[in-house]
Amino acid sequence: MTIDRAALAAAIGRLRAAMDREADRLNAADGALGDGDLGVTMTRGMALVAEAGPELPDDLGQALLRCAQAFTRSSGSSYGTLLATGLMAMAKAAKGRTEIETAELAGLVAAARDAMIARGKAEVGGKTVLDSLDAVARALDGVADPGVAAEVARAAVRGALDDFRDRPATVGRARIFAEKSHGMDDPGMLAMALIVEALAPPA
Hints:
The chain is mainly α.
């Protein structure tokens, strides 16, 4: 199975629906450790991405770039900026391509992770969305079957949430509440788990 413009458009639709459905949950999680507007960031961002959907070009690099630009217009939040940065890195890697194979997903996720690390001046291990992306990139490495890829990606983001739940936050705004963050999901990691589950639904 390959990923093309039609698959991307379908994924955008699923993701927008998921963010609308989970907005209150994300706002509540973010409110405990941040500004409480992560759900708003994600719903607004995906609304603009979805509006751009019908006009996306066949070139997946250009399509992902337009998605990043649309998301950036919706919010100046740090999480939104990081997601857009990751999308831009994926867009650069996919430039000129009309199809992407499942086996290439690990590299694309790793590219997004690395670009976000550079932009956010953070590292893996700080209980942030970077840890979710790192887990997904490692889980997808060497996986070429679409069904297996979806399964291991979902397991990876959920596993990352479980692994980091009882650790203190050491990066970003949440670090202010380091002790309080013990036993709590990082909002950005939770959002990425919901994103991956929307992009890679069970068969």
